[in-house]
Design the sequence.
């Protein structure tokens, strides 16, 4: 099991007080995680000692920067068990990964009348790019529904996933319910009808083992900033034959082999998709984040979060009028989105903040999910490697005070 | 817990809102949402023969701050002319609410005023525009 006190010492932001005598209780890692010292140091080292553009200079620091940046790519490849680092495309975030596939693969492969299958529990990042693609092409977007427990309803999967389905894109873990979806089963079903698959790993890569060869997905995307890394860097993984056949997404420097006034030829993958100077410090920072999580052990991370989630669901059930949405702890990542009587999530979050507790209030970029539940918003507490049971107790005590303020 | 922004009056108005409801027919109506939090406020108003606010009602969903603000605002504008409504300063509404608000919450507090002014200026209901 993970030693949470040792882990907490790695996160400098957790040492500060929000108000005099009130420590920060950070329960919003699902939106963006905190960064351990090792990540901050790796980025600072790049700027202090190696700062130069990559893939260009023949001088020493440029070669060292290139090496550090490409080493980070290899670390990410190892982290998700990709066969080759060339299949790891550096993008800004998971959102850009979806857009890249929608524009590059989608423009070349989706035609009028084709179907794209998504689920009703997707983050907007895995909804809007496909809706835009479908609109451009006259394609149809269909949705796999979820049950009242926040589990995917697979009873009509055969009707929704058919030979007309050209792409099935779904989240591995819901950012609201926390549902851990049966990714391997869904991918196998999609392959049986010849559909290309894409997995939103934004909420799984930070918290559990992701193995792209075992999943056998065609594409997978996640963000660095939710997994102890910096903002501005994310990952798109793709199968080699698909990436090689795809046209570039953006044009510019670094992505070309040769440019003439008449046109250009493209660089090899992954650089074909990385026009312009990349986020070098951020890529190196993500590499350090991968090292950090790998040292903790992703199995340990997942086990610790399962323990926290069980503890939290039990503790939150003591608050009268509180309902946590989604499945029971065994099928759930470290997320508890809840409602408390009919209180508005912004009122709850504002009062929790007065106790130093940071939670997310709103629709969490999943408006269709909330609409189906008949809610405009929920309050979401999310847990990570540095979360303690004492912090969950503090959340519960603070929620009891919220009830008192509202005379409940 | 420092709960100063949820002073007694805000909670009182949350429990017992003023002027809550719908007017049909109304001389002007407007509805808008705050995409940040999903709050929705609708205001319906009727004018008297002198063009002053005779009756006003608000409806919608929202946080305690936006709900209290709608109660206070609708109470305050009774008897005002349309020109007075159009010129109603936001500082006056924030003064009525009377608690220090963060930037994000100022938007909650001012949603009702935004809706009221859009109605007073005769801006077509956004739903009408969508339906055209």
Sequence:
């Amino acid at each position: 099991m993970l030693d949470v006190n040792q882990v907490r010492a790695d996160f400098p932001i957790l040492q500060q007080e929000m108000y005099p005598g009130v420590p920060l209780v950070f329960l919003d890692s699902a939106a963006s995680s905190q960064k351990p010292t090792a990540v901050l140091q790796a980025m600072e080292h790049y700027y202090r000692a190696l700062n130069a553009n990559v893939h260009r200079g023949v001088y020493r620091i440029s070669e060292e920067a290139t090496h550090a940046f490409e080493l980070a790519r290899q670390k990410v490849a190892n982290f998700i068990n990709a066969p080759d680092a060339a299949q790891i495309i550096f993008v800004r975030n998971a959102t850009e990964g979806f857009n890249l596939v929608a524009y590059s693969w989608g423009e070349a492969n989706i035609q009028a009348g084709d179907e794209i299958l998504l689920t009703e529990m997707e983050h907007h990042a895995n909804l809007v790019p496909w809706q835009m693609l479908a609109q451009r092409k006259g394609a149809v977007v269909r949705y796999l529904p979820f049950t009242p427990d926040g589990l995917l309803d697979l009873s009509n999967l055969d009707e929704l996933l058919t030979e007309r389905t050209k792409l099935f894109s779904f989240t591995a873990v819901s950012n609201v319910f926390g549902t851990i979806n049966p990714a391997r089963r869904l991918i196998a079903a999609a392959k049986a009808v010849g559909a290309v698959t894409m997995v939103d790993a934004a909420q799984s890569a930070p918290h559990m083992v992701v193995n792209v060869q075992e999943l056998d997905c065609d594409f997978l995307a996640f963000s660095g900033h939710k997994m102890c890394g910096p903002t501005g860097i994310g990952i798109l993984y793709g199968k080699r034959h698909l990436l090689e056949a795809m046209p570039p997404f953006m044009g510019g420097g670094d992505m070309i082999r040769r440019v003439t006034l008449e046109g250009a030829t493209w660089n090899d993958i992954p650089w074909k998709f990385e026009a312009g100077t990349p986020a070098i410090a951020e890529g190196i920072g993500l590499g350090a984040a991968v090292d950090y999580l790998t040292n903790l052990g992703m199995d340990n991370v997942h086990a610790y979060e399962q323990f926290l989630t069980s503890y939290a669901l039990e503790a939150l059930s003591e608050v009268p009028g509180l309902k946590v949405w989604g499945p029971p702890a065994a099928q759930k990542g470290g997320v508890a989105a809840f409602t408390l009587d009919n209180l508005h999530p912004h009122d709850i979050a504002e009062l929790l903040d007065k106790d130093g507790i940071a939670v997310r209030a709103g629709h969490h970029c999943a408006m269709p999910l909330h609409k189906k539940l008949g809610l405009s918003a929920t309050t979401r507490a999310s847990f990570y490697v540095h979360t303690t049971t004492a912090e969950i107790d503090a959340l519960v005590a603070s929620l009891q005070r919220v009830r008192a303020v509202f005379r409940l | 817990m420092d709960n100063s922004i949820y002073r007694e009056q805000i909670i009182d108005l949350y429990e017992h809102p003023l002027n809550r409801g719908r007017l049909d027919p109304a001389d002007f109506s407007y509805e808008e949402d705050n995409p940040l939090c999903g709050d929705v406020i609708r205001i319906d108003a009727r004018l008297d023969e002198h063009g002053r606010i005779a009756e006003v009602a608000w409806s919608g969903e929202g946080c305690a701050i936006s709900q209290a603000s709608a109660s206070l605002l609708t109470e305050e504008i009774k008897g005002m002319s349309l020109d007075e409504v159009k010129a109603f300063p936001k500082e006056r509404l924030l003064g009525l609410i009377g608690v220090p608000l963060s930037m994000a919450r100022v938007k909650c507090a001012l949603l009702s005023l935004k809706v009221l002014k859009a109605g007073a200026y005769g801006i077509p209901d956004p739903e009408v525009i969508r339906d055209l």
